[in-house]
């Protein structure tokens, strides 16, 4: 269903710090780029926040009648991937293919839709080389001993996104300190090859793309020089998005994105949830314990721009709250022969107006979630409402509002069965995959008990099934060889 609201959608633009109307570059169409994961490990629920929030924003834009082109990349060339290769003895293709597969499984378990395009950096190296050559020709980049750097002072608007001054910048996360730089803030566009690293030929010698150039290239190839929304976690504002903006706009002379959107960090104990800190909970663990609806409701209960703390107590509360909504929907299904909406009266139109008003105003999901619980409270118990004049019509409209409108937008309440959201969601793995998973876990247990004889027996048996094992610090992964 599409709704053409009378009021415009406004979103907070990180660059200006103000709410601004969403005015499409092309009428009726929204082009949107969201920075995806670096594929060197399993993702955690901190990574789930931007995935859930911007998946829901995409759904809402479609609900409002827009055609949405949604791109989310995989960063498969990066220092962290190379460090994992060197530490574990894995090859480049094995690491990236394994964790792309695992990320997709996690997103499916969360109910996050696949993007229209999911580009991998390694597939865009020729375009990256041409992009860098263009920057050199325009005087915004320079080569130095097999490396290429972006000249930060050459871009007058540098710092506008993160609200930093060039003279105050210090070399920070993922910005190389190198004596060949002309300015301390200059950042790498092309890295010189080192032994054992993946590399490609270029006019400057064998090497690989730097982190920031990757997203600029993929976004421009798939969405054009200027598009509507660039989004990600607020930890990416600087240096990643600032550098993306600088190099893209230096090349094209056009704004990279009309709106820059950033979600707040998910914290644990007041600190950002991060693999480097070690305070993480993997997505699959959270879904196993709470169900995808509970995790999504938890994310929506706080405005997307605000930080939020992970709490098992609050997750338990949202598990119970999600079950309450599903019980309400299930009661309606049981009370009515069928739940098809026959006509929308003023009650539904008013609720729908409240929904769009909330989501049009900087995507205020807490208000949208509150609308669901107000409706449940208003019409419970179902049998009592059904006995009132017009009760059947009201229940049909409530069912449609919660399941087919709010539910579709926020990716909730797809299955109203009693078990849904309370136990592990259905997995897409086959019986064979489940058996392999079990044998790998059993082998891990033997290894932890230093029973290497049994561990080797299982490894050999798995090899007969064409299963390749990859042992790492966080356990064993496997692929079909």
Topology overview:
Layout: E1 10-13, E2 18-21, E3 29-34, H1 45-63, E4 67-72, H2 79-88, H3 92-110, H4 125-137, E5 141-144, E6 147-150, E7 187-192, E8 207-209, H5 211-223, E9 227-233, H6 237-252, E10 257-263, E11 266-268, E12 271-272, H7 283-290, H8 292-300, E13 308-309, H9 312-335, H10 346-360, H11 365-379, H12 382-386, H13 391-410, H14 431-448, H15 452-464, E14 467-472, E15 475-480
Parallel strand pairs: 3-4, 3-9, 9-10, 11-13
Antiparallel strand pairs: 1-2, 5-6, 6-7, 7-8, 11-12, 14-15
Could you describe the 3D structure shown?
The chain has helices at 45-63, 79-88, 92-110, 125-137, 211-223, 237-252, 283-290, 292-300, 312-335, 346-360, 365-379, 382-386, 391-410, 431-448, 452-464, and strands at 10-13, 18-21, 29-34, 67-72, 141-144, 147-150, 187-192, 207-209, 227-233, 257-263, 266-268, 271-272, 308-309, 467-472, 475-480. By secondary structure, the protein is an alpha/beta fold. It has 3 domains: 27-272, HUPs (Rossmann fold), CATH 3.40.50.620; 331-410, Four Helix Bundle (Hemerythrin (Met), subunit A) (Up-down Bundle); 431-480, no CATH class. Helix 10 (346-360) runs antiparallel to helix 11 and helix 14 (431-448) runs antiparallel to helix 15 (452-464).
